[in-house]
Amino acid sequence: MHAAVIQASDAPPVYRDHPDPAPRHGDELVVEVLAAGLHHLTRAKANGSHYSSGGAYPLVPGVDGVVRDEEGNVRYVVLDDTALGTFAERTLIDPRRSVILPGGIDPVRIAAAMNPAMSSWVALRRRVDFHAGQRVLVLGATGNAGRMAVQIAKLFGAAQVIAAGRDTTRLRALTALGADETIAYDRIGQAADVDVVIDYVWGELAAGAMIPMLTARADRTAPLTWIQIGSIAGQTAPIPSAALRSARMRIVGSGIGSVPARDFLAELPELAAAVTAGAIDVRARAVPLAQVAQAWTTESDDRVVLVP
Question: Which site from 159, 191, 258, 299 is most exposed, i.e. has the minimal number of CB atoms within 10 Å?
Fold first, then answer.
């Protein structure tokens, strides 16, 4: 079979022949890969920069995808740490880490949506006590995961969703997806009275936003939950001590480890159903797996999905 293979952390993937997978125990299935998303997590795990990276090479990247099993079932699957990911014609899965999809689904759309959508979906369902009527600020709302977070917060009944980002053109487009207000980062104080922050940026940008937000809150004793999910602006944030003393704010992280694998898996069916039903707008671009080296380093507004 063919697969994308990475030989070292600083090397791009190479499309080449690769041995066919063989089950190592009775629970594993050999499946045909239909579509696999090129996510930020995929790149980070492959180059060793993500905290969950295994650091073993060579490897076939790909953390999830849409596959077909030997019985003809189409599944969305999340892989455990493995050197044989979904950037291949075939791979190995544990069926317990998958959900069978209904007939007629678009594999490319599902593969594009599930990973970025899962970040905010799981955070609001499993990491915090979110309930309908709360107000939400999304930092980094113009990215793929951020624009889905805007939609998911609304889907879960948020009374107000404020989208924050740098690109004014992309921000304006978010009103059609459910954003009640859009703001640039230098106006973050206008989002002071939210209940939840979904943060995809972190770094100095997030740290710098905290004091203006907290000092502008009408009631500093009202709870504010800051959910740290992504770090596109920096891996570390110099959080002012006053931010933790001057208001009732708590910071929590949501991701692999802080959320048990069983909780991620439990949310897969409902999320897949929402994506399939069109409740979440998806921007996807299919690219042949043979072009993986070019796709790996190309920035795109759409989520790139590799198709063997």
Answer: 299
The Cα 57–Cα 9 span in angstroms is: 8
> pLDDT-based confidence at 74, cuts 50/70/90?
very high
- Full residue range of the structural domain in which residue 297 is found: 2-100+278-307
| CA of residue 221 relative to chain centroid, distance | 31
| Collapsed DSSP state (helix, strand, coil) of residue 66 | strand
**Residue 242 and residue 122 share a domain:** yes
- CATH number reported for the structural domain that contains residue 55 in this entry: 3.90.180.10
Token representation of residue 170: 């992309």
Question: Nearest-CA neighbor of 184 among 147, 158, 204, 209?
Answer: 209
235-263: pLDDT as tens digits = 999 999 999 999 999 999 999 899 998 99
DSSP H or E run through 89: none
Match 């009275």 to its residue by tokens. 193
Question: pLDDT tens digit string along 8-62?
Answer: 988 899 999 999 999 987 789 999 999 999 998 899 888 877 777 777 899 999 9
Dist. CA 176–CA 180, nearest whole Å:
9
For residue 234, is it left (φ>0), alpha (ψ between -120 and 50) or beta?
A: left
Instruction: Please choose, from the candidates 187, 179, 190, 189, the residue with its C-alpha nearest in 3D space to the C-alpha of residue 138.
Output: 179
Phi, psi values for residue 92, rounded to 5°:
-110, 140
Q: Is residue 124 part of a domain?
A: yes
Which residues 6+ apart lie within 8 Å of 154 measured at CB? 161, 178
Q: In whole angstroms, give the CA distance from residue 207 to residue 187.
A: 14
